[in-house]
Amino acid sequence: MVQIIVLLAHILMTPLVFSAEESVFSTLTAEQLEGYQFEQSDSKFRVTPLNVGQQAILDSQRRTVSDLMLRHLGVSRLKGKAADLDHFQALIQRKAIRFDDVTTWQALGVVFGDYIAEQHGLTWVVYEDELGVSKALRWQDTDNFVFPVTVFSKRIQFKETPEPRAIYADLSGVIKGFKALEARPQLP
């Protein structure tokens, strides 16, 4: 699957400079096609369960958001329902978090991730690759991940106003897509 995506990306990124008689695509014979070597992705990553320290950090971030919700909205706890998205939006609209407070924006990302995990049956894991270590949500025992911790802080960094409902809808579409892909029968 990764090989097909890499090949398609290569084809789509090839400059489109040709005359009407030329083709961007080369024609392969059956023998050439059989021996064709797809580019391999060298992306290596490691996934591990959260350790006790990482769980404690997430819990601390959850408490930070819980305190914000109580102080600014009078909401004592989130319920795992769609109304939670409205509470996230209310915090943003009331500017309850300073734009330069990356730590609190990421704490909101953790609580948003909890909502996503509950709605879609994902679990928190530690994802490590050549770029570093991140907390991620994983679909079962697959290589499908969502990274909600920075979903708000990155938007703020680029001067965007986060829209939790829209972000959730986009991520839900992605999650449903990889669930459907994993549910397809595998070729022998």
Features:
single chain, 188 residues, alpha+beta, Four Helix Bundle (Hemerythrin (Met), subunit A), 2 domains, 7 helices, 12% strand, disordered N terminus
Distance between the terminal alpha carbons, to the nearest Å? Answer: 14 Å
Instruction: Please list the strands of the largest sheet in the order they lie side by side.
Output: 1-2-3-4
> Helix fraction?
40-55%
Main beta sheet, described?
A: 4 strands, antiparallel
The third-level CATH topology of the largest domain is: Four Helix Bundle (Hemerythrin (Met), subunit A)
**How would you classify the quaternary structure?**
single chain
CATH level-1 class of the largest domain: Mainly Alpha
Structural class: alpha+beta
Detailed description of the structure:
- This protein folds into two domains: 2-34, no CATH class; 45-183, Four Helix Bundle (Hemerythrin (Met), subunit A) (Up-down Bundle), CATH 1.20.120.
- Helix content is 50%, strand content 12%.
- The chain has seven helices and four strands.
- The chain has helices at residues 2-13, 30-34, 52-73, 83-93, 102-120, 153-157, 164-183; strands spanning 45-49, 122-129, 132-139, 145-146.
- A four-stranded antiparallel sheet has the order 1-2-3-4.
- Helix 3 packs across helix 5 (102-120).
What's a quick, concise take on this entry?
The chain has 188 residues and is of the alpha+beta class. Helix content is 50%, strand content 12%.
